[in-house]
Amino acid sequence: MEISLLNIIACPLCQGQLLLQEQELVCQIDALAYPVRTNIPVLLVSEARNILVK
Known about the structure:
The protein has 54 residues and is mainly beta. It has no helices and 5 strands.
C-alpha cells in the first residue's frame, strides 16, 4: 500500500488517523485494525478486527 494514501484516508467510524502496521490499518481511538488485502485497504467496520486485549 502506498504511504501517500495514508494522508487522505481516515477511520470510517471516527474519521481519525490510521496507522499502517504490517498488513493492517490501525485506528488507535476505536481500537480497530482494518485489513489491507492485495494492497487495497478494506475500510469496512464489519471487516475490522478489535485490537483490545481482554
